[in-house]
Specification:
This protein is 40% helix and 25% strand. The chain has a domain of 83 residues: Sporulation related repeat (Alpha-Beta Plaits, 2-Layer Sandwich), CATH 3.30.70. The C terminus is likely disordered. The protein contains four helices and four strands, in the order H-H-E-H-E-E-H-E. The termini are far apart. It has a four-stranded antiparallel β-sheet with strand order 2-3-1-4. With 159 residues, it is an alpha+beta fold. The relative contact order is 0.15.
């Protein structure tokens, strides 16, 4: 007939089906209603926090002048595979041209240092001429997406 290992296997299978059959029964507790709805109890202070955060966001949005991007020009200062050389060039930019924003990026295997946010090529050309003495390998004007500060929006708080 059946071997002992086969009997043990069948006994195990029937036991598993028997136990899982009873585990599917549904029970209702005294806290649940019979219609299937759920009652949520929350602290009333949560609503106050949400309202406060929303009002703070409105205030911050009205006071902040957002930067917009557009097509423009930047100066390519250096493109090197030496990180130290790129950081030294960035330090020179901050030292001699503090009004320019510099952008150091890594595109394997080169570190590229770009500077400035110029909307016209003539602006970029004027600054490039001033940089020629600091960077004898050359400074190049490249077309890029640049940041432009938005005009300040006037808001009337009396309304």
């Amino acid at each position: 007939m059946l071997s002992i290992s086969m009997k043990k296997l069948l006994f195990f299978i029937f036991t598993v089906f028997y136990i899982t059959g009873f585990s599917q029964e549904t029970t209702t507790s005294s806290n649940e209603s019979s219609s299937g709805s759920v009652v949520v109890h929350k602290d009333s202070r949560i609503d106050l926090l949400i309202k406060k955060k929303a009002s703070l966001n409105k205030v911050a949005k009205s006071k902040k002048s957002y930067n917009h991007t557009t097509r423009g020009y930047r100066l390519m200062i250096i493109s090197t595979n030496s990180r130290e050389e790129a950081l030294n060039a960035k330090t020179k930019i901050y030292t001699y041209f503090p009004e320019l924003k510099s952008y150091l990026s890594y595109q394997s295997p080169y570190f590229k240092l770009k500077a400035g946010n110029f909307t016209t090529r003539s602006e970029a050309e004027r600054v490039r001429k001033n940089m020629e003495t600091l960077f004898p390998k050359g400074v190049f004007i490249i077309s890029d997406i640049v940041e432009v500060k938005a005009e300040k929006v006037t808001t009337d708080d009396s309304i």
